Amino acid sequence: MTKRTPLNRRDFLRKLGLAGAGLALSGCAGEPVQQPLPTPFSESNSPTPVPGGTSEPTPSPSYGDIYMSVVHGEEPEEMVRRALAAIGGIERFISSGDDVIIKPNICTDYYSYEYAATTNPFVVGTLVQLCRGAGANRVRVMDNPFGGTSQNAYRRSGIEETVTAAGGEMEVMNSNKFRANPIPDGVDIKEWVFYQDILDADAFINVPIAKHHGTTGLTLGCKNLMGTILNRGQIHANIHQRIADLASRVRPTLTVVDGVRTLMANGPTGGNLDDVKMSNTVIASADIVAADSQAATLFGKTGADIGYISAAAAMGLGVMDLSSVKVEEFSL
Amino acid sequence: MSAKTIRTLRKITQMLSFGLFMYLFVQAVYLGRSPLESDLFYRLDPLIAATAMLAGRTVIFGLLYSLINLLASLVFGRVWCGWLCPLGALLDWVSPRKPVVKNPPSDKWRTVKYVLLIILLGAAVLGSQTLAVTDPVSILTRSMTAAVWPALRYLVFGLESFLYRFESLWPALDWLNARLLLPLFQGIESVFTSALPIALFFILILGASWIAERFWCRYLCPLGAMLGTVSRASIFRREVTDACTSCGTCAAGCPTGTIDKEKGFASDPAECIYCYDCAADCPVGAIHFPAHSPLKPEGSREYDPGRRQVLAALGGTVAGVSLLGVETINRRQPERMVRPPGALLTDFTSVCMRCGECVRVCPTQGLQPSLLEGGLQNIFTPRLVPRLGACSYPCSACIQVCPTGAIPPQTLEEKQRTPIGLAAIDTDRCLVWAYDTICSICEEVCPLPEKAITLEDVEMEDAQGNMVVLKRPSVVRDLCIGCGACEYHCPVGGEAAIQVFTLPDTDVYLRGI
């Protein structure tokens, strides 16, 4: 099975540079240039937006009642921009001066991102850039890998490179900053040890990669929250309900599911390119349950098939029935 | 150049040398980021070169740099000891200003280091490198790796942990942590099974300086003995001129105590470390280092080992190596003696020089210096303790740093295919097998592209009478490489319910190792 890389790292960094220059120039112009919001199924011959253009402030949220966007395409950074634009732009979630934490899935240092065990670095890098463009004071990216050291995993995943280039910082999660916190709405667990900075951040963006997982079936947005806590082993005792309980406490501001490459088997660690499918999808929603339910369809499943998604829906943490909300799905 | 200037230069050189040692020590974990090889000091060590090549019966080109050191000794005597040895520098710094013990041990004790050298070389000829653990570079590396640095880390991070209780300090501490502490100490707790014995050995060597200055270098160091033997024919040797007033300042200040009042304050070039203290402190400038012909070496001393002692040392060596041959490891590899990747491919214990570089660079610190787990003959050789740290799948650091090739050169792909052990599940303790609890962490963390642990769905009634589906793990023998990720992460208390054991004998044969 041959894999095509739609965007390599060098391209991405070059584009970031262009985008940065674009931002700087538009800053000189005084009035921000208003970009039309992208429309679904836009013509393929329509002019390509200026790089960085979509990260301009969107003055009025004109996303209507669009609850979730599902974007198909081949360029991860553009997919992320359009997915965000469709649900109201990053400014709906990030205000000037915010302290933002982005949590990708960097589960191990075993393999590079092409193996689809860790979140696509271009998806993460673009989010960092969008947040910075929206005036975020500080954008930190972190995860707590279970295999290998954080530093090695950050490097191998390619995420350190894109995040640093986009003006974010990688933080090695410090054991001293985990604090016991109550989970008022928890069904099975009423207290757990969370990373305090994540609970205290102005905005927390959850960026899971959609992939196979032996125990839970799939690892998606709710499951990705396992990286915000200590004593993960004990979660396994009642994994689905406990993951939902964690989600009731962490409540991400925004969930962006990386479905660019999806690991279809031998997850969560992967290692075989034959298990990787180019699903070319990015999903964005403020509702973690809806985003997870949508992501499950990439694997021919529904939210109801995954224990923690139905548990989270039962707790009222989001919408699992996607027919009841407005989903904007389009291809680039 | 005046003697005082030369002494100052020597002190600066010692600081630079120790600084370089520590720099190489810290950067060793960042493979390939420094222009200097992290095993630079080993490469300059002729003792290690001799024993590794004799015992391994091979020429190790990387260790031939040590000829430079031997050559330097032929010109300047034991300059290594006085100017360059990082352990020697440390000993100089920790020595008390004034001797604590009035009368140092008799000169006869100087014989010990020569006897030790003879034993080391004799044992190496017989294929044993067990005593390479007494090499000074090896001692310093091992002590830093397994005791000093981890203890320092514990102290620093303990203090940091206390400060983290004050949330207002977090930004400053985060900065300190990211910029200084993590690069220096890495993001992993340092624990070593042999930390205390190694620390004790180190403290003894340092503490002996209270009995006599440079006690280790005078009486014990086998490398010092080797360089001293060569230095006897060195070109520049210390001499005292007629200007001497017999004031005794030089003899009182000599760090190796080799200046003999009875012999007109002459010294033994095999014991002199060219520190220039005597020349710098001589009130009348009577001490100088004129050139001699190397063809006329210094005569022997009463403490040089005589023929009888040499024969006794060699006899003892044969007896000692023979006794080590009676250790049980020669019949059976202990079940938990898992070696670094690929080590099964070589005659590991005779090539391994116990330098501890692999232990130092192991990012999970699963590689540990063993104590008696592999018999006395394997003391301080590396073994994988997966419960403390698994063999990292994408890592080949130990392969890259091993100076002797005891951990043989392999590509990462080869390493990832080469089994070093085999995992086994203890079904009496496994949460799923023994207690019908849901757990599949071992399967989850298995790093192999095709997981070496499979989960079998088993439908059964739990204690409350509910039907539950359990996923029972089993090890796929053909896939498992024994990295130990499963053992490290197994959530049962104490010893894991899945453990990596030495490869079955049949596997060793079948897989052509």
Please give the structural blueprint:
The complex is a heterodimer of chains A (332) and B (513).
Chain A: H1 9-28, E1 68-72, H2 76-86, E2 99-104, H3 121-133, E3 138-141, H4 150-156, H5 159-165, E4 169-170, E5 178-182, E6 191-195, H6 196-200, E7 203-207, E8 209-213, E9 217-219, H7 221-224, H8 232-235, H9 239-250, E10 254-263, E11 276-285, H10 288-296, H11 307-314, E12 327-331
Chain B: H1 3-27, H2 40-43, H3 46-56, H4 66-76, H5 79-84, H6 86-94, H7 111-125, H8 136-163, H9 170-185, H10 195-207, H11 215-220, H12 222-231, E1 239-240, H13 249-253, H14 277-281, E2 287-288, H15 307-324, H16 348-351, H17 357-361, E3 367-369, E4 382-384, H18 397-401, H19 412-417, E5 422-425, H20 431-435, H21 441-445, E6 453-461, E7 467-475, H22 485-489, E8 498-501, H23 505-510
Antiparallel strand pairs in B: 1-2, 3-4, 5-8, 6-7
Helix pairs in contact in B: 1-6, 3-7, 4-12, 7-12, 7-15, 8-9, 8-10
Model description:
The complex is a heterodimer of chains A (332) and B (513). Helix content of chain A is 30%, strand content 20%. Chain A has eleven helices and twelve strands. In chain A, strands 1, 2, 3, 4, 7, 8, 9, 10, 11 and 12 form a ten-stranded mixed sheet that branches. In chain A, strands 5-6 form a two-stranded antiparallel ribbon. The longest helix of chain A is centred in the first third of the chain and has 20 residues. In chain A, a hairpin with an 8-residue loop joins strand 5 and strand 6. The N terminus of chain A is likely disordered. By secondary structure, chain B is mainly alpha-helical. Helix content of chain B is 43%, strand content 7%. The mean pLDDT of chain B is 91.
